[in-house]
Amino acid sequence: MTIAAAIAELKTLLGDGLSTAKADLEIHGKSEVHFADAAPDAVAFPTSTEQVAEIVKICARNESPVVPWGTGTSLEGHSLAVRGGVTVDFSRMKKVIEVHPEDLTCRVQPGVTRRELEAELRTTGLMFSVDPGADAALGGMAATRASGTTAVRYGTMRDNVLGLEVVMADGRIIRTGTRARKSSAGYDLTALFVGSEGTLGLITELTLKLHGRPEAVMAAMTSFPSVAAAVDTVIATIQAGIPMARIELLDALSVQSFNSYAGTNYPEQPHLMLEFHGSEASVAENAQRFADVAADFRAGEFQIASREEDRRALWRMRHDGFYAHTALRPGAKGLATDICVPISRLAEAVAETQDDLAKAPFPGPILGHVGDGNFHATLLVDVDNPEEVAAAKEIGARLAERALRLGGTVTGEHGVGFGKMAYMAEEHGDAWGVMGEIKKALDPGNILNPGKVVRVN
Amino acid sequence: MTIAAAIAELKTLLGDGLSTAKADLEIHGKSEVHFADAAPDAVAFPTSTEQVAEIVKICARNESPVVPWGTGTSLEGHSLAVRGGVTVDFSRMKKVIEVHPEDLTCRVQPGVTRRELEAELRTTGLMFSVDPGADAALGGMAATRASGTTAVRYGTMRDNVLGLEVVMADGRIIRTGTRARKSSAGYDLTALFVGSEGTLGLITELTLKLHGRPEAVMAAMTSFPSVAAAVDTVIATIQAGIPMARIELLDALSVQSFNSYAGTNYPEQPHLMLEFHGSEASVAENAQRFADVAADFRAGEFQIASREEDRRALWRMRHDGFYAHTALRPGAKGLATDICVPISRLAEAVAETQDDLAKAPFPGPILGHVGDGNFHATLLVDVDNPEEVAAAKEIGARLAERALRLGGTVTGEHGVGFGKMAYMAEEHGDAWGVMGEIKKALDPGNILNPGKVVRVN
Questions:
Q1: What is the spatial distance between Cα B230 and Cα B223, in angstroms, rounded to a whole number?
Q2: Same domain, A129 and A87
Q3: Residue B252: CATH number of its domain
Q4: pLDDT band at B306 (very low <50, low <70, confident <90, very high)
Q5: Quick one: closest CA in B to A415, which residue?
Q6: Which of residues 368-387 of A touch B (CB under 8 A)?
Q7: Which residue of B has its CA nearest to A188?
Q8: Is the residue at B344 inside a domain?
Q9: On the CB side of B94, how many CA atoms lie within 13 Å of its CA?
Q10: Is residue B305 part of a domain?
């Protein structure tokens, strides 16, 4: 009953589909962020659900941790093998199994990435809406309940996963949900697995909602004299019920980083990035309603991107935000914070955070999905400087306290992984214990992504 | 450790707040439908969360079932005390605790009904969108994952509950969710309790999403030469992405029942009932787009209700549908079926059901939330006639088989209760067992609404 015994059995099962090569272990032991590397003892590359089930059974029998892996773009150390074991890399499960244009649904394997699905859908007039920036695997996006720029209009993964196939900790294969748009047939297991970060089961297939591509799309950027003015515009927009497809905040430092990283030339002031979806008439109507609101807060000129290639360039720039931020300070690690608050408390949440950042010994550009009340400060920390690390921790703790005080959450979309474990008790109280009870019931051996999300004694 | 011992302790705790009066037991032992009465041994009327927690602790200690009760309007026997015990009636927990107009949220106690909340919101410009027809309690609506006519636009209770306070089987009080619009902080316990029908915990408070009242609303009815033509119109409408706030099917027999029950005078043909929400311009645009689609399927003249009182009369008529149906055959019990299928399979699902009903020994009018692929046939059965009861069971079984064969669910919105228990294994396979494991973990004594949703050995 050792990890080594599991690996020996897996080698027989998978042949080439199991690697213990140093390079593979290293790649799967890294994260996008500041956490210490934590490599698995082996990496499995299954090609089918049945293989995943066999892998899990072997690991269960040998008490080996099993860590699911999509593209490794998560931001809280979700896929680090903190207790060793076997990482299950879904990159060989990349089939778009079926697309039902008439039902606005599709069925995919977990290794398909967001952009791969987009390419597959190009001729159908349909789109998959959830867009976290990174070209993440859809299985990982479901596991971490990803959201991003379009959630304000189309919802998060919670809203866009209709059903799942999941391999449980004992190797059982179950299916949750149906292809119908709604159901009240018992516990919502789909919603339970979405956001469970691989700790309750391994997602081996997803049924996703699709949306018709809007007839008309208009994107725009506009500057504001202050972050407060931009945020107040967002609050007024959401409260007026103006349907926005995207509404993103950039502070002046973010704009500076974009100009430098993407070669753009925007005035280095706070901006909102916007997108409207609908019919030609409704897009024009809503853009005008927004402009009327923004004028009250002294918005600058609107830079409108109507051509698809211009829009793509705009959003690529936004998607590269984390990389643009980290490029501001070569050698520094980016710590992306992620609080989300009720929209009425957004202005004070951002203002208090700016005050903290003004005193910090490192730069901390802010951007975010402000239509949801969600924003990120990227703390650009020299991780070899203990003073900076301590200051970053302090800012993180103050952000968490702020989010909870204002009625929000310590993580709007990045998830818990182990990076946010420290705040779970405070956010959930006894409900965190209930999560632990569910974990124990469904994974009594604690083999599935152990050390993440819940604490199991 | 008996129910009697629990009642003695509860009497001390609650005084007048506990009833064993025959009339109270009888009322709480009935359901809206054909199930045999099943009265509790006592009814508790708590006035606070703390009282609910004490009630559950006493019942847990004495191994007494605990059955939550909102308004008793559920349709699958959810609130029948099939194993006796104590029914917890939330009618004395009716506070709208706070409304946050600026965040589009409110916090309510579970006994507040849908219409009571509507009255409370009247001056705010906001609305709560979920509308199952009956004036149900919001706690019950969450527990059964209710939806109804507006789900096609605003979603079901799954989409409109942001957070809950729940009393667990051991009396612990937990809070799930936050007031932020999204979160990825661990397992989605809110979604787990929504639709758990009181089997995992008792909901003692809800944080709900509100929506701005649309600037413009237009309702309309239009006839079709056949149910197939009406359904094909719905499919084309949904696939074209025309934003409908409601889109409801009535077959000819339903229209006849409405004319008779509500004193209206519609042609006794299949109809669609529609509602559009938006700005004046977008409502007009979408109504025109819909009319263009409907014309292809030979729709009749549009009867437009623009005045609020006319719209209210229209939807009251629809809301009374179940009662109008049952009035078609005095003395008969109405069995409301509830399948939901992918929209592309709706036409065949309805057509096959009509074939079955044509051969049935009783009338079976059809109506439904067809924009979601969800429809109801009300089987008007003489429950004293064994032949009719057998035919009704056969039709129900064929509907279930049909729903699953077409990729849908046996219950779109009514829930499982014990009326749909027979189909759970077929719909969920091994996932039903996983639901049972969660139930055992969170309610090891099986005291919370036992005999519903899951099977616990």
A1: 8
A2: no
A3: 3.30.70.2190
A4: confident
A5: B184
A6: 372-374
A7: B192
A8: yes
A9: 14
A10: yes
Residue appearing with tokens 């203002």:
A351
Average pLDDT over residues B191-207: 98
Task: Scan residues 81-110 of A and list those with Cβ closer than 8 Å to B.
Answer: 100-105
Residues 114-133 of A with CB under 8 A from B: none
Question: Could you tell me if A223 and A317 lie in one domain?
Answer: yes
Instruction: Report the alpha-carbon distance of residue B74 to residue B31 in Å, rounded.
Output: 7
Contact B182 A240 (CB under 8 A): no
CATH number at residue B404: 3.30.70.2740
- How close A447 comes to chain B (CA, Å)? 17
Residues A78 and A98 in one domain: no
* Domain that includes residue A119, residue range: 94-212
Span A251-309, pLDDT tens digits: 999 999 999 999 999 999 999 999 999 999 999 999 999 999 999 999 999 999 988 89
Tell me how far CA of residue A453 lies from CA of A85, A436, B181, in angstroms: 18, 9, 20
- Our count of domains for chain A comes to 4
The β-bridge relationship of strands A374-381 and A339-340 is antiparallel
Q: Looking at the complex, does the CB of residue A212 fall below 8 Å from at least one CB of chain B?
A: yes
In chain A, which residues have their Cβ closer than 8 Å to the Cβ of B106? none
Record: contact B372-A181, CB cut-off 8 A: yes
**What's the number of CA atoms in the CB half-sphere (13 Å) around residue B25?**
13
The answer to whether A325 contacts chain B (CB < 8 Å) is no
Domain-located, residue B457: no
Q: Which of A187, A234, A289, A374 to mutate to test the interface with B (most CBs of B within 10 A)?
A: A187
Q: Looking at chain B from residue 281 to 310, which residues have their Cβ under 8 Å from any Cβ of chain A?
A: 281-282, 285
CB pairs under 8 A between A and B: 280
Alpha helices, DSSP H, located in B40-100: 49-61
Task: For residues A124 and A57, state if they share a domain.
Answer: no
Q: Nearest Cβ partner of A180 from B158, B185, B340?
A: B340
Residue A443 lies in a domain: no
Residues on chain B touching A183 (C-beta within 8 angstroms) = 340, 408-409, 411-412
- Count of alpha carbons within 13 Å of A136, Cβ hemisphere only? 27
Interface test with B, best of A176, A181, A208, A399 (most B CBs within 10 A): A181
Q: Are A237 and A319 in the same domain? A: yes
Q: Among A55, A74, A91, which residue terminates a domain?
A: A91
Q: B102 with B207, same domain?
A: yes
Contact B79, B137 (CB under 8 A): no
Sort strands A211-212 and A271-278 into parallel, antiparallel or unpaired. unpaired
Which pTM does this prediction carry? 0.97
The domain boundary, picked from B303, B323, B343, lies at: B323
User: The domain spanning residue A166 has which CATH number?
Assistant: 3.30.465.10
A300 and A359 part of one domain: no
DSSP of B330-370, one letter per residue?
TTPEEEE--EE--GGGHHHHHHHHHHHHHTSSS---EEEEG
According to DSSP, the residues that pair with B177 across neighbouring strands are: B163
| B3-62 residues touching A, CB cutoff 8 A | none
Whether residue A178 sits in one domain with residue A146: yes
Does the ipTM surpass 0.90? yes
CATH value at residue B51: 3.30.43.10
Interface of B with A in 396-455 (CB under 8 A): 403, 407-416, 420, 423-424, 427-435, 437-438, 440-442, 453-454
**Model pLDDT for residues B348-404, shown as the tens digit of each residue:** 999 999 999 999 999 999 999 999 999 999 999 999 999 999 999 999 999 999 999
Interface touch B182/A374, C-beta < 8 Å: yes
DSSP for A188-241, written as a single string:
-HHHHHTTSTTSS-EEEEEEEE-EEPPSEEEEEEEE-SSHHHHHHHHHHHHHTT
Task: Name the residue among A285, A373, A454 with its Cβ closest to that of B279.
Answer: A285
The CA distance from A434 to A429, in Å, is 10
